[in-house]
From TrEMBL:
The keyword Repressor does not apply. Keywords: Oxidoreductase. This is SDR family NAD(P)-dependent oxidoreductase. It comes from the Bacteria. SUPFAM superfamilies: NAD(P)-binding Rossmann-fold domains. Coiled coil: none annotated. PROSITE patterns: ADH_SHORT (PS00061). It comes from Sphingomonas corticis. InterPro entries: NAD(P)-bd_dom_sf, Sc_DH/Rdtase_CS, SDR_fam. Belongs to the short-chain dehydrogenases/reductases (SDR) family.
Length: 262
């Protein structure tokens, strides 16, 4: 897909981190970008700074997503690009069932945290895929046959889930698992779907970490021995969008790291 002023895009989780870097990269190519983000304190200012449209959206709520698409399309036209970066976990690390070292008490995983993590990461991504693809199907194909391109964000946790990550791993593995299916479902319509599996990236989530913690995480990466930069994620996302033969793929972006059990 050739990027430029006629193209509109939606980036979920676009007010920070990987989503913000991707939005900046798309805008630098002349693409009109709408940021879906539920952080109404930060989102409008970020959108004004980079020249995007901010829409307050909670991807866990269908009505919010529907109204978000309507608002983005009213501002920028029907999008040909969707980049799903909204995600996270709830409740911190929890084992499937834990035993206390102090008194031997047995604690099952809090199911409500599991459900919310799946809702945000997996169902939220799929909800946006469905809404965006339905709109893309109304467009004529571009010269290279594309009606649209979708990029999802999973995690290396999808393949290397660590102790205490069962909910997050389940959600991200689900995103990986649906990628080829979505690509096949939408192939006849000229809509492509790919997924990036980031490793340890220097995002706002790690911004609060102490320098020694960041140094230890960087040392775990075979090469280069540093945290990933959001701009590196953005460059891969743009390649997936531009390259019309890139379809149905799940690609790790992690400096060759393989996460250990803990």
């Amino acid at each position: 897909m050739k990027l430029g002023p006629p193209i509109a895009a939606i980036v979920t989780g676009g007010a920070s981190g990987l989503g913000l870097a991707t939005a900046r990269a798309l805008i630098s190519e002349g693409v009109k970008v709408a940021l879906f983000d539920r952080n109404a304190q930060v989102g409008p200012g970020v959108a004004q700074e980079i020249g995007a449209t901010y829409v307050e959206v909670d991807v866990m709520d269908q009505a919010s997503v529907d109204s978000g698409f309507a608002a983005a399309r009213a501002a920028n036209g029907q999008e040909r690009i969707l980049v799903n970066c909204a995600g996270g976990g709830f409740g911190g690390p929890n084992k499937t069932v834990a035993r206390s070292k102090e008194d031997g008490a047995i604690t099952p995983y809090p199911i409500e945290n599991y459900v919310r993590t799946i809702e945000l990461n997996l169902i939220g991504s799929f909800r946006c895929i469905v809404g965006s693809a339905a709109g893309m199907m109304t467009l004529p194909p571009t010269d290279d046959g594309d009606r649209g391109a979708i990029v999802n964000t999973a995690s290396v946790a999808a393949e290397d889930g660590q102790i205490g990550q069962v909910a997050y791993t389940s959600a991200k593995a689900g995103i990986v698992g649906m990628t080829l299916n979505v690509a096949r479902d939408l192939a006849a319509e000229g809509i492509r779907c790919n997924t990036i599996l980031p490793g340890i990236f220097d995002t706002p989530l790690l911004g609060r970490a102490k320098p020694q913690v960041k140094a230890a995480l960087s040392a775990m990466v075979p090469f280069p021995k540093r945290l990933g930069m959001p701009e590196e994620y953005a460059r891969l996302a743009l390649e997936m969008i531009r390259n019309s033969y890139f379809n149905g793929e799940d690609v790790r972006l992690d400096g060759a790291i393989r996460m250990q059990p803990r």
